[in-house]
Design goal:
By secondary structure, the protein is mainly alpha-helical. It has 4 helices and no strands. Helices cover 92% and strands 0% of the residues.
């Protein structure tokens, strides 16, 4: 007979537990809409609903059962919050790890940039030195070409002077004068026409 009473009370206790869980949900929903300022709800309506729910609990004498259900609900919500915090904490830790990796990568990249800058400075310095050398070599080459032109002119004049001297030594004054005059006529004509030898 005791078994039949427990079986009979089990469905009613389940109904009571479900009823109490429903009341807890109503309280939470009412509190949530109050704190978030839900549409069409004002504080007096929410207060009336909460007071009605609490009044039902006391009238039925289920304060302890309601407290148990409330504790269970609170415990479940705390577990959900802890789980959510752990999940976000893992994301936070992963983000910090990624930031540290980015920082290490940034330091490495910065060092590479500094090294590359030094190489560019050295290479640029070498290029400047080579350019200075090239300019100096070109000046030297131009000086050599100018000196060679001057030497060619001198050789031509010396050749004519030798011819004149040879004619004078052989007492061929007319031939010496003719060689000298042809040189002067050639030089004057070149200067007038602007041609170089």
């Amino acid at each position: 007979m005791a078994e039949t009473t427990t079986k009979a009370t089990d469905p009613s206790s389940k109904e009571q537990i479900q009823h109490l869980q429903q009341l807890v949900r109503e309280l939470v929903i009412t509190e949530t809409t109050t704190s978030s300022g839900g549409p069409g709800q004002d504080a007096t309506e929410n207060f009336d609903q909460i007071s009605y729910t609490i009044k039902q609990i006391f009238q039925t004498g289920k304060e302890e059962a309601f407290a148990d259900q409330l504790s269970t609900f609170i415990h479940r919500k705390e577990m959900e919050i802890e789980k959510m915090c752990n999940f976000h904490y893992q994301e936070f830790v992963q983000s910090v790890d990624q930031l540290l990796k980015v920082r290490v990568g940034t330091v490495t990249l910065r060092n590479k940039i500094v090294d590359l800058n030094q190489e560019l400075q050295e290479t640029g310095g070498n290029i400047v030195e080579k350019k200075k050398e090239m300019i100096e070599n070109r000046r030297t080459l131009l000086n050599i070409e100018t000196a060679m032109d001057a030497l060619q002119s001198c050789l031509f004049v010396l050749d004519i002077a030798n011819k004149v001297n040879t004619h004078i030594e052989n007492r061929k004054y007319y031939s010496a004068l003719r060689v000298q005059l042809s040189y002067f006529l050639e030089t004057d004509t070149d200067q007038i026409t602007g041609e170089d030898d």
